[in-house]
Design brief:
alpha+beta; 262 residues; 5 helices
Length: 262
């Protein structure tokens, strides 16, 4: 199974339409089974096209670009988590070419008020892969020491769902540097396995360099974006992508692509 996670930083990027087109070309080339996206936004004032998806939804435009390439394999599920930059409905998305059995979204923050920018929601799909039901999560969590919405409480809410799954992949921006001890990453690893650590072929794993939104004082290289699993499985490779080395940069975060055997 081929997995990709990417915090899109959508509608905050220069040349955004060109970058959407480029991401679509890479997805088409790589033929991922599952793509988890975070910071997937649409303007509050835009027209609805169906359900809660509006005409300028980042994931919808990405799907449209894939269709222009003749690739109509991918469906997606998106939901809004909170209002961003006063004008956007910012949410999360899972895109897949696999058969979808079930889909849901749920809050993991104390607040479920989308007007509060620290409100956090998860989107989940159950899909069928090699006759096995697999649970998929796209996640964007808060910070370890946040006074309003601490990471530990959010992760505990998330894990309440994961602990009932047979096979799960939990992907996204966890806002905790994997290179820092005794904080969020170590707490995660008490309950889930990092595919980066399980992988026999991997790179340095860095997904953020320097200062970005939410890490305004940062001067370090960070590994914030992770692909986690609830089982010890065979991981063929884990590589950072969209970092200027493995494909062009498209966001303030780099993506992570992982190949697993289940």
């Amino acid at each position: 199974m081929k997995l990709l996670t990417l915090n899109c930083h959508s509608w905050q990027e220069d040349n955004q339409i060109e970058k959407i087109s480029y991401i679509a070309k890479v997805i088409d080339e790589k033929d991922y089974d599952v793509i988890a996206l975070q910071e997937v936004s649409q303007l509050i004032c835009s027209d609805i096209t169906y359900n809660n998806v509006k005409v300028d939804n980042f994931a919808l435009l990405l799907q449209d670009e894939l269709k222009k390439l003749g690739n109509e394999k991918y469906t997606f599920y998106w939901d809004v988590a909170h209002i961003g930059y006063d004008i956007y409905e910012e949410g999360l998305c899972l895109m897949t070419k696999l058969p979808v059995i079930e889909k849901e979204s749920f809050n993991i923050s104390k607040s479920n008020d989308i007007a509060f920018w620290k409100s956090r929601k998860i989107v989940k799909l159950n899909v069928l892969y090699n006759k096995k039901e697999v649970s998929l999560y796209s996640c964007h969590l808060g910070w370890w020491n946040d006074d309003d919405e601490p990471f530990k409480a959010q992760f505990n809410e998330l894990f309440k769902k994961i602990k009932h799954d047979n096979i799960a992949f939990v992907m996204g921006d966890f806002n905790n540097n994997a290179n820092v001890r005794n904080e969020g990453y170590d707490y995660i690893c008490q309950k889930l396995f990092d595919t980066y650590k399980l992988s026999k072929n991997k790179d340095v794993g860095i997904t953020v360099e320097g200062k970005i939104a939410g890490w305004d004082e940062n001067k370090e290289n960070l590994r914030l974006d992770l692909v986690l699993t609830n089982k010890v499985i065979k991981v063929e490779s884990s590589n950072v992508i969209f970092n200027g080395i493995n494909k062009d940069v498209v966001s303030d975060h780099y993506g992570v692509e992982v190949v697993v055997k289940i």
